[in-house]
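Students often ask what a holo structure prediction actually looks like on paper. The answer is less mysterious than it sounds. You provide the chain, you provide the ligand, and the output is a string of discrete structure tokens encoding the 3D arrangement of the protein together with zinc ion.
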Amino acid sequence: MKAILEGLKTFQTTVFERHRELFERLRTKQDPQVLFITCSDSRVVPNLIVQAEPGDLFTVRNAGNIVPPRGQSTGGVSASIEYAVEALGVRDIILCGHSNCGAMRAILHPETVAAMPRMAAWVRHAEPARQAVRRLYPDAQEEELMERMVEQNVIQQVKNLLTHDWIAGRVRAGKLDIYGWVYDIGTGRVRGLDESGEGFCETAVGAPGSPDEKLMLFELENPG
Ligand SMILES: [Zn+2]
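The corresponding structure tokens follow.
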């Protein structure tokens, strides 16, 4: 805790002063363009990764960057997303998973959360992703299983976002784009869900890696 309080002092005496104008501007309003949904993991720092300033990202974090689908969504995650979309009118949603995610391990190995009933219940929102991994990569070993689990979970949570009418409606109207990202902690690289909504490619300026949400919506509404 000592380091935290020393950090606070440095912020107030040095950093805040340097950005005084910005904080003054933000005093009574925020106008973020991006909703960033990611894991609670301490190694994932959204503002650092995309070099965003205070006021730029509306951030929702939870174990496993999970978005409960329509009908199972009365908690804080859905409320925060609803606020970002309806009240703040964000233009983009980034759903960002990451390498070495403990929540993904919990999904693959339920015994690791056997003594944590709330965690076990929470990660059930990612169960379709686990099934997809088992189906698509039946022979994968542990390390690859984890990587694929992170990816399939990102795909599943983008789909879960699209189950909400108030998100799907804006996507259809071209007022909202959804990006699925995987952040690699050890390299700093980010891979984005590609046009097909099934694969991932390197995300960079000019090659944002955006899925075709309308295609994903169509597939959600017309399963099989
Ligand atoms: Zn995580």
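Strands lie at 34-39, 57-62, 92-98, 177-183, 190-193, 200-202.
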